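hey so u asked for the seq, here:
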Amino acid sequence: MANAEEKTSIVILTGGELRHTYFRIGMAMQPGVRVLASFCEGAEKSLTAQYTNSGNYDEDIRASHIAGRLQTETDFFASAVKWSADKSSAYATLYQVLVTFAKTLAPVLPFITETLYQNLVRTFDPQAPASIHLCTMPQADESVRDAQLEDQMRLATLAVVLGRSLRSKHDLKTRQPLRRLSLLPPDERSRRELAGMVDLIADELNIKEVVLVEDETEFSEISYKPNFRALGPRFGKRMKEVAARIAQLTAEEMARLQTGEKIEVADGEIAVDDIEIQRQEKEGMVVAIENNLGVGLDIQLDGDLIMECTAREFVNRVQNMRKEADLEVSDRIVIGVIGQPELLQAVQKHRDYIGAETLATELQTGQIPTDCLQQQEWKVNAHDATIGIARTPNF
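ran it, structure tokens below
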């Protein structure tokens, strides 16, 4: 459930000033906003090029291509809003993205885009063309493009995808905070790009600390063994000596081998193809690698992390109750909870966070407020609980 600030922004931006807001602040130098606008222009350029180079829209513009571009925009928008300090700017830029995409896709999705246009444009601007099919086809604005920022966000997104896959594989829900994520970039350029994205990655994955590591020994136990099939015929009786030397290779030596260098041993030379690399995840770490980007996730949980997860789960239950009670986004409430000691301890420890997220002016433990709007039995991070909410009086 969106917090109060985000919902308020949505309400404001669905008014008549939405388009004016975009042109006034949509191109502000907020990275989250810029990347959203940049991807929009890139997708627009790609789609219009498809139109220009094809003789028949329906046959030659493949739905998979369009869906892929739209999915990219959707994935990046969620991150862009979180990354942007000014959510009004991000939401307003989304409006422009939706209108632009609707116009660009109108030749192949005539009815859906017409509905979008009538709702998004004509509702607020009666002077606009009566139909989306009477609008001029948008032209990509290359001045809005930021290829470096797009690459940066793609790399960050890959790190997030790998992190989420590790969470899913090991049954670690997103609300469970984790202590540390280690990233091993494929090269120095990627390292620089990821360095500016660590806060976003930490927020997306609910991680306390994201660190860039120098080599995979930070999250894996690495050992080296000889490729006997390649080395046996060359070294014969001296294979034992060669195997011992390979076992003693350092990370620095291996890095040199991977650049094409060779190492002398037993009156001969060995190259990277002569070595088999064996990896074993360190205790408490899980690892994923894709496109030479390594992600190591520390999955060890302590009491503080578990209590924070309990607090986040508690907030989720209260937000659901707010929704069922048809409360306005700005309504203040009193919360009461009865439950197991571990639950009450977590609620007490994180009462400020819970109050801020749920707009609670009072948080009562061990009792339920009078005049409850909602009272329900819940499982909160495996703890039994009874939660009640009431309006804050005289607020």
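Residues 31-53 form the longest helix (23 residues). The chain has 16 helices and twelve strands.
lmk if thats what u needed
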